[in-house]
Amino acid sequence: MPARQKPVFPQQRAQCPRDAAEQRPPLLSRLRPGAAAATVWYLRLLAVLNIVAVLSLSFREEVHEHNGGELFTPYLATAGLVSAVLALFLAVVMRRRKRAAWIFNLLLAGPLFVLYVLALTQAPYRRHVFDWISVLLTGLFVAALLLGRREFRAVGDRSNPRLALIVAGCGVLVSGGIGTLLVSATNQLPGASLLDRIAYTLLRGVSVGPLADRIDAVHAPRWVDITINILIALSALCVLYACFRAPRGRELLGEEDERRLRALLDQHGERDSLGYFALRRDKAVIWSPSGKAAIAYRVIGGVTLASGDPIGDPEAWPGAIDAWLEEARRHAWTPAVMGAGEEAGTIYARHGLDALELGDEAIVEVADFSLEGRAMRVVRQAHNRVRRAGHTVRIRRHGDIPESEMATLIKKADDWRDGGERGFSMALGRLGDPADDSCVMLECLDREGEPRAMLSFVPWGAHGLSLDLMRRDRDSENGLMEFMVIELLLRAPEVGIERVSLNFAMFRAVFERGSRLGAGPVLRLWRSVLTFFSRWWQIESLYRANAKYRPVWEPRFLLFEKTSDIPRIGIASARAEGFLTVPALPPLLGRHPRIARGRTGGPQEPVNTHGGTR
């Protein structure tokens, strides 16, 4: 008797092989991602082959001679650095699924494939196997482009065709002029006209192979050919940068966005000590559909970098995160969050982001702070020493400082700055702006009443402050910063303050746990590595400097989608914070960044007053 067949319930039907096959996407839909990935790998391979061909030119010429001089190469295979740079760049933007890159490749490779097919009708080309291989590879690339066209949906960033044309023209004139001079000075054949030398230079810019050998009147040394190719490649790289650079400076924080953010901070500013830094004017902002929450971010190198927690009602945070991630997908940006708190990190994690603990923020509760006790002995003695030296601290809101005095403080802050401008997630970047009258300034005055150091704090809700700026005269004595912080904590009722957020200590847990009894070998090794790098960067010293106030340590996290994106996010974060600077093109055609409204008379460039202390 046959076995009784088990009934299939509706909720189980999806597990049946027949139904699973019906739900399987069509064959073309399954092939599209692979076709799109194949175009990227083809471009990567061509970039490597072009570089290899440049370095081993003898092999390239041997193949050409063996085939009788009648051959053509696959798409973008010209044995030149220009093609290598172009292929590598196109591979990057194609991996990001940029629609403009797909169109560019199709417009370039499509007609080239047609020309190759027509060339095969000519007898000299049909007998060369390499020509058939070139047609096959180029045709497969075009077919992969057409098959994977729906995968390339990301819109462009900050394309500037006019700037790209100007850069291209200047690049051709400069590199072509230098190359023509080199060819004229080193040409080993007499009687070459100026037109022949220019044509030779331009052909050498495309390839260091036999392409330019068709100019019979010119023969230059190998080093000249390579130099010309490098110059043209650098010009092409500048053109690509002008076409596809990240959209910094276009969608920055507007006055209406700033007004709405300030309204949200008035209602929900107590939640995050970094909330006020969302008002930096080099950030953009994206809103939730309800308008009750927003995310401040900046795009750097294809990374959309948000800072801190979302601003506004936590119930509206998911809507703002969805909008931010959707914009990232639309532009093929890599999403990342720097310095998110635990609550926000949990919500970001629900949207598919992973978390990595960066360090801890030092928060001092004024009600719990005291200089009494043996544990505070060193701090108490340092405070008394500076006070006996005749130093005093003046605490004022920025709005209570006369404009002439504020101008003096701004000048001193610039003079006392050590190193370049830094700050993004934990720095406001504009000292003395009239919109920041609620910020608090601490000035350390010597016996003669001259400022020798200063601290500036931004509001953290109605009863908190968050450190923005630390500056001191390098000729002053040590301990002034600690003296000012202690004075602020002792006199906090004067400005209605209940808690103060101080510096951010990266990898604090490593230093604390790594020094304990029983710490494992990996933790001890990691602590040794960080201690070594602390000789150049303030890693351990920031932790030690803030631990003396016995703060509450609040963890801060880095949020990201894929682990492979962490190096790229790290570079973007270093650029945002000012630790890594990239040379920028000079402003052309009257395009200038948005400027801040200074209170010291006339507009001024945004001044980052962070100083790398936060």
Structural classification? alpha+beta
Poorly predicted parts: 1-22, 585-614
The CATH architecture of the domain at 361-551 can be named as 3-Layer(aba) Sandwich
Number of E strands: 12
Main beta sheet strand tally, sense and closure: 12 strands, mixed
Highest CATH level, the class of the domain at 361-551: Alpha Beta
From the spread of the alpha carbons, the general shape counts as elongated
CATH topology of the domain at 361-551: Aminopeptidase
Secondary structure tally, helices: 20
Supply Rg.
31 Å
Helix content: 40-55%
Assembly state (oligomeric): single chain
Mean pLDDT across residues = 81
Strand content: 5-15%
Q: For the record, what is the CATH homologous superfamily label of the domain at 361-551? A: Gcn5-related N-acetyltransferase (GNAT)
Membrane topology: Multi-pass membrane protein
GO molecular function, one term: aminoacyltransferase activity
InterPro entries: LPG_synthase_C (IPR024320), PG_lysyltransferase (IPR051211), tRNA-synt_2_TM (IPR031553)
Protein name: DUF2156 domain-containing protein
Q: What would your notes on this structure say?
A:
With 614 residues, the chain is of the alpha+beta class. Among the domains are: 25-156, no CATH class; 361-551, 3-Layer(aba) Sandwich (Aminopeptidase). 46% of the residues lie in helices and 14% in strands. Strands 1, 2, 3, 4, 5, 6, 7, 8, 9, 10, 11 and 12 form a twelve-stranded mixed beta sheet that branches. Strand 1 (284-287) and strand 2 (293-300) form a beta hairpin. Helix 8 packs across helix 9 (194-206) and helix 9 crosses helix 10. The longest helix is centred in the first third of the chain and has 29 residues, at 27-55. The radius of gyration is 31 Å and the shape is elongated. Mean pLDDT is 81; it is low at 1-22 and 585-614.
